[in-house]
Design a protein that fits this description.
- The protein is an alpha+beta fold and about 140 residues long.
- The protein folds into 2 domains: about 70 residues, no CATH class; about 60 residues, no CATH class.
- It is about 25% helix and about 20% strand.
- A 3-stranded antiparallel beta sheet has the order 3-4-5, with no helix packed on it.
- The longest helix has 11 residues.
- The radius of gyration is 26 Å and the shape is elongated.
Length: about 140
């Protein structure tokens, strides 16, 4: 099993160390910042991926803004297709993202090559903001 000899630097400490070691090659800089492991055979492996990720995170660049995901399921494609029975199903991912609740109603307006869904208010008389669904090219 591999183990890290020192705790890797993060944040401002990492950025400061990278500036100090700017004259060294990337692998050596990563190693001196603690981004390496030592294998059973006493070989040193530099982990450049974690090093780069840490540098970007320290600079405030979000790499994985949805890091809390559990890795299950599919990513939304923002496309739908018409089923054999003629229905178009909008999945729960999209309705949750829009904050819709069971029972919310929409007025359907058909246009040329598009469908507008306009959300109805609770009294079903006034329309609120447009919710638009555009089909794939026909």
């Amino acid at each position: 099993m591999t183990e890290t000899a020192t705790a890797p630097l993060t944040g401002k400490a990492l950025l400061q160390k990278v500036k100090e070691l700017a004259h060294l090659p990337r692998r050596e800089t990563a190693k001196r910042c603690g981004y390496y492991t030592v294998t059973k055979n006493d070989q040193t492996r530099v982990n450049l991926t974690d090093f780069y990720d840490a540098v970007l995170a320290a600079k405030g660049v979000p790499l994985d803004p949805e890091g809390t995901k559990d890795g299950r399921g599919r990513e939304p494609t923002y496309r739908v297709s018409v089923h054999k029975n003629g229905q178009i199903v909008i999945g729960a991912t999209y309705t949750q993202e829009m904050g819709l609740k069971p029972g919310d109603e929409f007025e359907i307006k058909l246009g040329y090559k598009h469908i507008h869904l306009k959300q109805l208010d609770g009294d079903s008389t006034r329309l609120s903001e447009d919710q638009e669904l555009e089909p794939a090219e026909v």
